[in-house]
Write a structure and sequence with these properties.
63% of the residues lie in helices and 10% in strands. It has 22 helices and ten strands. The strands form two sheets. It has a six-stranded mixed beta sheet with strand order 6-7-8-3-9-10, with helices on both faces. α9 packs parallel to α13.
Length: 610
């Protein structure tokens, strides 16, 4: 119930639609009952009436319960007033047939609109839930994504949301329609014979006990199925993302075996889930048939003794058969809803996650003086510091270069400046104001970022450069491309700026992708540029074009550059040498060379290599 209460806000916008569905469901249940109740007058028209039946003494029946007797007489009188033509059996039969056809036409029209409206509510609610989950997910901090598999998150947004809604939303109609129909038919049965009704439902307690036992097992196997679906999605996502490596290493068979293992686990869980869920149906039916046989024997004996009319027993048996469908639907609700609840738990777990990096109340103003790191420390895991007591100042209009051995913490420092993570100790300020005071969107809009791996989207060149810039004009995009040395090669593409570049920009070369990434950063007109080893993965010719673009951009701009090739940052205003998360040297290129420490050793090694 707690999970269902959590989902109520998603139902609120559709209160009117759900109210209409509820009303139509009630009408539908009444008409469904009427299609069964009409059997009684049909039997009266076809079968000549015999003597008045009375129940034997000591056996409670309709006559012993005035309410049921009166209701029976009222319903019979109402139906007869519509269909019985005095002294005209054929006319009465014709009226019965017309009434049956009319009831079914109205019933099926209502059923159609109920199903359509239910689908509209369900699909729109799925959209709302999926949009909300995506909004919550995309708003999480980077730690959240580091701890989660991408395929698992995709599975939550697709499989789990769909399963949750498809299991829970239709249940709303079932909870209203089927119990009402069952109660109406139960009342009909009681008007014929409370005794036979009691006998018929004597096995219900056993069915309820069985449902109670099965529900726990259904939940367990539902959890296994959802987890297996998540693993399948993760495997697919990872496989397609790394298809070049798989092909290069001829690992298709290995990946196929791993995928078969994931699908096998899902099938095993699905088989157990099905075996558990479907135990209830046959078992309940066997118990119902036993009760039906007892009813047939007892009722048949009453007919033979002349205390009950044959048409009443036949009508009772037909209604008893008909009531099994709504009762079975009600009985199946706990098991059918269980998988939806399991999916809802996974969805709510994502929605309940709180970002560790929270937005502040202030709008960030343009950089006036400096961005400063003061005694900053940070660790991804407790007890394993990645950044240790770092103090740095990036002056407006100047370039700070970060160099040093791989794994020293350079990229982490840049992530802290961008506030993808919050410092564990110390602080970072922009013009003297702690960056945690700023609204994340306005603060990050001050930065343009170019990483070692060019992250591009399967879209046109124009949309990739204009990404994140709402009011980007053609001129603004082309100016950014020119500054990034990208305009010429873009013009040579088949459709120029409208050319699709494929998944992750696969249709472009590495140098072209990197220049597009630089153009994208420039299109934001950023206050501070961040370059994270932007040329290290390029060949010599591509590096020349990209480095030329970077050098042009750094003139009179505030920038932080992580560089693997020290020759590219020798003109930086200040250079910080980072080793094991700490600043071990700080100064200009010539000063650091003259000092003869780590920077000099790194420079000499690269000079010999060159």
């Amino acid at each position: 119930m707690k999970i269902l209460r959590r989902l109520l806000p998603f139902l609120k916008p559709y209160t009117l639609g759900l109210s209409v569905i509820t009303f139509l469901s009630l009408i539908l249940s009444l008409l469904s009952t009427a299609t069964i109740a009409i059997i009684w007058p049909i039997m009266m028209v076809i079968i000549p009436p015999g003597g008045k039946a009375t129940e034997p003494a000591g056996i409670p029946g309709a006559a012993a319960v005035p309410l049921f007797g009166q209701a029976k007489a009222w319903m019979l009188g109402l139906i007869q007033s519509f269909i019985i033509v005095p002294n005209d059996k054929l006319g009465s039969l014709r009226n019965v047939c017309l009434l049956v056809v009319g009831i079914f036409i109205v019933k099926d029209i209502i059923k159609y609109f109920t199903f359509v409206l239910n689908t509209v509510v369900e699909e729109r609610m799925i959209k709302d839930i999926r949009d909300t989950v995506f909004s919550r997910t995309i708003g999480q901090s980077l730690e959240f994504f580091n701890a989660k598999r991408t395929g698992e998150l995709i599975s939550v947004l697709t499989n789990d949301v769909n399963m949750m809604s498809s299991a829970l939303t239709p249940t709303l109609g079932t909870i209203i329609r089927e119990p009402m129909q069952a109660l109406q038919m139960l009342f009909l049965l009681l008007t014929f014979s409370p005794t036979l009704t009691l006998i018929a439902f004597s096995t219900s307690i056993l069915s309820l006990v069985l449902i109670r036992v099965l529900t726990k097992h259904v939940k367990r196997y539902s959890q296994r199925m959802q987890t297996a679906l998540s693993d399948i999605t993760s495997r697919l996502q990872e496989t397609f993302l790394n298809i070049r490596i798989i092909k290069g290493y001829s690992a298709e068979r290995y990946e196929l075996d791993r995928f078969k293992g994931e699908t096998k686990r899902y099938v095993r869980a699905a088989e157990k889930h099905s075996a558990t869920v479907n135990v209830n149906g046959p078992t309940g039916e066997i118990l119902a048939i036993i009760a039906l046989a007892v009813v047939l024997y007892y009722g048949g004996s009453q007919v033979l003794q002349g205390t009950m009319r044959a048409e009443e027993l036949i009508s009772f048996l037909l209604i008893l058969f008909a009531i099994m469908a709504p009762i079975n639907a009600v009985v199946q609700i706990p098991t059918s809803i269980q998988r939806g609840l399991v999916a809802a738990e996974r969805v709510l777990a994502v929605m309940d996650a709180e970002p560790t990096v929270k937005s502040g109340p202030r709008k960030a103003a343009p950089l006036r003086n400096e961005l400063q790191l003061l005694n900053v420390g940070f660790s991804y895991r407790p007890g394993h510091p990645v950044v240790r007591d770092v103090t740095l100042t990036i002056k407006r209009g100047q370039t700070l270069a970060l160099v040093g051995p791989s794994g020293g913490g350079k990229s982490t420092l840049m992530d802290l400046m961008l506030r993808l993570y919050d410092a564990g100790s110390g602080g970072i300020s922009l013009d003297g104001i702690d960056i945690r005071e700023f609204d994340l969107e306005s603060y990050r809009s001050l930065f343009g970022v170019v990483t070692q791996e060019s992250i591009l989207f399967n879209d046109s060149v124009f949309n990739n450069i204009a990404y994140g810039v709402i009011d980007a004009t053609r001129q603004r995009v082309e100016d950014a491309a020119r500054m990034a040395n990208a305009h010429e090669f873009i013009q040579r593409l088949p459709q120029g700026y409208d050319t699709p570049i494929g998944d992750r920009g696969v249709l472009l070369s590495g140098g072209q992708r990197q220049r597009l990434a630089i153009a994208r950063a420039l299109a934001r007109d950023p206050q501070i540029l961040l370059f994270d080893e932007a040329t290290s993965a390029l060949d010599t010719e591509s590096e020349m074009f990209v480095q030329e673009a970077i050098n042009n951009l750094l003139i009179d701009r505030t920038a932080v550059v992580i560089a693997h090739r020290l020759s590219t940052i020798k003109h930086a205003h200040m250079i910080a040498v980072v080793e094991n998360g700490a600043i071990v040297e700080y100064g200009r290129h010539d000063e650091l060379l003259a000092a003869g420490n780590l920077y000099r050793r790194l420079y000499d090694v690269q000079f010999r290599e060159n």
